[in-house]
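Example 3.2
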Amino acid sequence: MWCEYQRGVPPTSNVLLRLIVSLGTVFALLASAMAFLISWHEYSRHFRGRTKAVRLALRTAVVAFLFFAVLSILAGLAINRIMGARG
């Protein structure tokens, strides 16, 4: 940590970034699970085959996970930059 501080990066900034990305990943997993359940329920009403509904719901869940994971990384970087400018 002391070498990070010598480079001009406060030691708490990486901890904050890791915390935000970790929490974002947890909530992205929760969002993808909810997206899967909601879309599977809707697709199962419209398609007779179960595999088609599950495949489409999985695709929706992956897109939701990627969206929220990228969003949390970007938010973490933005907050890290804001906190670094103040410190």
